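User: I'm preparing a small set of examples for a lab meeting where we compare how different chains pack in three dimensions. I only have the primary sequence for this one, and I'd like the structure in token form so I can line it up with the others. Please keep the answer compact; I'll paste it straight into my notes.
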Amino acid sequence: MTDSERQTVRLLERVILELLERRGPEATICPSEAARAMHAQGNDGWRSLMEPARHAARRLATAGMVEITQGGLPVEPSKARGPIRIRRAR
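Assistant: Understood. Below is the structure token output for the 90-residue chain.
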């Protein structure tokens, strides 16, 4: 991972935490919300930030700050495949 990619992931970590802070304690967000928040233009460029957003969510989950869920249930970050949601750690 390049320094630029690491910086993007760290920024996305902050965005994820900020988005969760603005929501209720039980709320979840989609990684796409963080990607869209980072991408200022109104086009589809946010899609290139999806994998970095998922990576940021995995890092936060590993640090115990958030949980990654599928179907409303927590999943092991490294095993999550397909659509995920992110919520505050419980």
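A couple of notes for your slides: The mean pLDDT is 93. The longest strand covers residues 66-70.

User: Perfect, thanks.
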